[in-house]
Amino acid sequence: MSNSLNQIKKNFTEGLSQISRFWGFPKGMGAIFAVLYLSPTALSLDEIVERTGLTKGAVSTEVRTLARMGLVHRSSKLGDRKDYYTAETDFYAAIRSILQERQNSEFDRAVRSVKETLTALEENWVENEEWNFVYERVKALQEFFDAIDSLAKAVIRLESLGLSNVTKILSVLK
Amino acid sequence: MSNSLNQIKKNFTEGLSQISRFWGFPKGMGAIFAVLYLSPTALSLDEIVERTGLTKGAVSTEVRTLARMGLVHRSSKLGDRKDYYTAETDFYAAIRSILQERQNSEFDRAVRSVKETLTALEENWVENEEWNFVYERVKALQEFFDAIDSLAKAVIRLESLGLSNVTKILSVLK
DNA sequence: TATTACGTTTAGTAAATACTAAACATATAT
DNA sequence: ATATATGTTTAGTATTTACTAAACGTAATA
């Protein structure tokens, strides 16, 4: 029965919605990506609305952030003023894109505040045990963040190298 | 002035709170970790309450999940029935612990649903173009998740090797 | 056995977030 | 110029999540 495929698609979409929520994104985002990912053709905004059950407004904004993350692509057909959307299928590229997105934003500001703590400690320096202790700890955290940062940058640089290769490399290390 | 150190600590705590929220954890968790991290001595639950401004209930539950993640450790002093808490300072160990925690939980269940989609497609197979298309896509996603999974497992295996070393290795690759 | 010192659980509240419905903006077609 | 088709923004609502206040459980002490 042909209905079976729709049922399967629905299950898949629900699964991706959950995964989306798990990573701290709205579940609607996962659903939108899922319907695009399973569609052989590019979909218009209204088609996405129809298949996800969300409203135009929600789809409009969420599809934009998906595009900014590089998980979907917006295109247009000649002589048709609708926008059309397709899913990115190169997930490694998408990961790079997401990491790059995160480089800026909230996170960077917060990490910077750790570095500021460090300089504040240096500038108002008082030689005593606790001051030393706090300084060492903050410094260690800052170095950790630096390491994370360079790891992220390294991953970004892996233009053509699939994540699976990285996995192989890591498994050789132990 | 000695007050300055408290001010610096407060800024630091606020920074970690934001970082915590950014990664999808309650900001209170970040605050709790921060005060423990900057304390030279182990702190009791009530001391944490005092320094974070949270209530006992909140600290009680959040300190427990921090402990489960391996980010703090619970200990007790002889002849004192309070529990005492300290921050984990080996962040690489903590990362491993968090990854391990996530192995189970929500995420795994969702990922499994993708695999289920795949078998559902195989079992109800209908030979046509769309069916093939959907199958290929779902399969590609499933392989991607597998890669992520083995990457996580590889990282977990890196007992003694610091993340900073991984960074170096990655930077050599490009 | 009653009291005290703790940690945990629970029931309710406040705050944050995702989403809806509808007004709006803009370009195209009539 | 008016109407139509489209995407966006906005204002409000519903849902979820973090947190509070207080009751509760439990073990140690008196």
Explain what this protein looks like in three dimensions.
Two copies of one chain form a homodimer. By secondary structure, chain A is mainly alpha-helical. Chain A folds into two domains: 3-89, Orthogonal Bundle (Arc Repressor Mutant, subunit A); 92-173. In chain A, 72% of the residues lie in helices and 7% in strands. Chain A has eight helices and three strands; from the N terminus they run ααβααββαααα. Chain A has helices at 3-22, 27-37, 45-52, 56-69, 91-103, 105-123, 129-157, 163-173; strands at 43-44, 72-76, 83-87. In chain A, strands 1-3-2 form a three-stranded antiparallel beta sheet. In chain A, helix 1 packs across helix 2 (27-37), helix 2 (27-37) crosses helix 4 (56-69) and helix 6 (105-123) packs antiparallel against helix 7 (129-157). The longest helix of chain A has 29 residues, at 129-157. Chain A is elongated and about 70 Å long. The mean pLDDT of chain A is 85. Chain A binds a DNA duplex (30 and 30 nucleotides) through residues 26-28, 44-46, 54-58, 60-62, 64, 81-83.
Itemize the secondary structure elements and their pairings.
The structure is a homodimer of 174-residue chains.
Chain A: H1 3-22, H2 27-37, E1 43-44, H3 45-52, H4 56-69, E2 72-76, E3 83-87, H5 91-103, H6 105-123, H7 129-157, H8 163-173
Antiparallel strand pairs in A: 1-3, 2-3
Helix pairs in contact in A: 1-2, 2-4, 5-7, 6-7
The structure holds a DNA duplex (30 and 30 nucleotides).
